[in-house]
Amino acid sequence: MSEGLTKSAARNIFFGGTIFFLVILVALTVHSYGYIEKNSTDVAGITPGVEQGKAVWERHSCINCHTILGEGAYYAPELGNVWARYGGFEDADTARDGIKDWIRSQPTEVEGRRQMPHFEINEQELDALVDFFKWVNTIKTQNWPPNVAG
Ligand code: HEC
Asked: So where does this one cross the membrane (predicted)?
C-alpha cells in the first residue's frame, strides 16, 4: 500500500468499530429491558378478570375491526382508551354499564354508520372484557393514543 491506510490500521478500525458498536448494542438492550420492566406492563394489575377479558377479546377477533393501542384494523374505534372515553376515571360504574350496553345492543342499524355485529357474550364475560379495557387504559403507553377519541 502506498499511503494512508495500512493493513493493521484497517484491522484496528474493523475490530475497534465492531467492539465499540457491540458494546453500545448490549448497553441499549440492557437499558430497554430495564425500562420495560419498570415502566410499562402493570403486572400486578392483571387480575383473573383481565386475563379472561383478553381471552374473550381474542376469541371474538374484535381486532379484525378495532385497534388496541394502535394495533389492529382501522375500521372501528381504538379501544385502548375506551375506558377513558366512557368516563371510567370519573364514574367507573356508569362507564362499565355503558360499555356493556353498547356491546349488548349491536348492531345499531343506524343508516350510514359502520356496523358492529352482535356477539353472544354473557354477563360475566362482558365484565371481564371491561376489566381488560380498564387495565389496558391504565398501563403506561407513553401517551398513546394521543387523544381521547383514539
Ligand atoms: C365487524 C367489525 C367489528 C367487530 C368484529 C367488532 N366491532 Fe366493535 N365496533 C365496530 C364499529 C364499526 C364501531 C363504531 C360504530 C359506531 O360508532 O356507530 C364499534 C364500536 C365499539 C365500541 C364503542 C366504542 C366507542 O368509542 O364508542 C366498543 C366498546 C366495541 N366496539 C367493542 C367491541 C368488542 C368487545 C368486540 C369483540 C367482541 C368488537 N367490538 C368487535 C365494529 C366492530
From this structure: 12-36
